[in-house]
Amino acid sequence: MGQKGNTTEEALGYSLKKLILKMPFEKITIRDITEEAGLMRPTFYNHFKDKYDLLEWIFTEEIIQPAEALIESNMMEEAVRLMLRRMEMDLDFYRKAVRIQGQNSFQDIIFQAFRDIMKRVLESKMKGKHMANRLLTPDSIAEYYAAVSSFVIIRWIKTEWEVTTQEVAQAYTMLVAEPLDEMIRELYSHT
């Protein structure tokens, strides 16, 4: 687990990460989070709408954002390897987080984070291009990559045996055999 953050968001994130190791996520209250962080309860709502929003912020800040440049450069295997290494540094937290089920499950949070970044990347790469297949829109391609990415990460976190980040990154590459840029070139033509 990282050190206590300098910003309010980081302090709240650190607090949630500490608490989730002690008790089930469902039992953690906003009051628990703010007390652990040494903050007033209303401060939480200046930054996050609920504890699921905070959980999404943690995943995005710690895992997605550091890999964003690699994703934008179509270096997906390297991006996945980096994300996995960062998750590995806090594996106990992520193993607890993956147990969160229901409407705001951790799997949903991971899927949404990947979908959002992939959609941004695809929309920027596809500007000025004409779709060759109406089914394969930036939205549907982003959802596909998000599904594969979240599947691989969830599967790795849940694994009971030791699987290296290298093996997981290779599995990801095998599942997504065709690089994103090549698929874009095939599906879209310049207008």
From TrEMBL:
<keyword id="KW-0238">DNA-binding</keyword>
<feature type="domain" description="HTH tetR-type">
    <location>
        <begin position="6"/>
        <end position="66"/>
    </location>
</feature>
<dbReference type="InterPro" id="IPR050624">
    <property type="entry name" value="HTH-type_Tx_Regulator"/>
</dbReference>
<dbReference type="InterPro" id="IPR039532">
    <property type="entry name" value="TetR_C_Firmicutes"/>
</dbReference>
<dbReference type="InterPro" id="IPR001647">
    <property type="entry name" value="HTH_TetR"/>
</dbReference>
<protein>
    <submittedName>
        <fullName>Transcriptional regulator, TetR family</fullName>
    </submittedName>
</protein>
<dbReference type="InterPro" id="IPR009057">
    <property type="entry name" value="Homeodomain-like_sf"/>
</dbReference>
<dbReference type="Pfam" id="PF00440">
    <property type="entry name" value="TetR_N"/>
</dbReference>
<dbReference type="Pfam" id="PF14278">
    <property type="entry name" value="TetR_C_8"/>
</dbReference>
<feature type="DNA-binding region" description="H-T-H motif">
    <location>
        <begin position="29"/>
        <end position="48"/>
    </location>
</feature>
<dbReference type="GO" id="GO:0003677">
    <property type="term" value="F:DNA binding"/>
</dbReference>
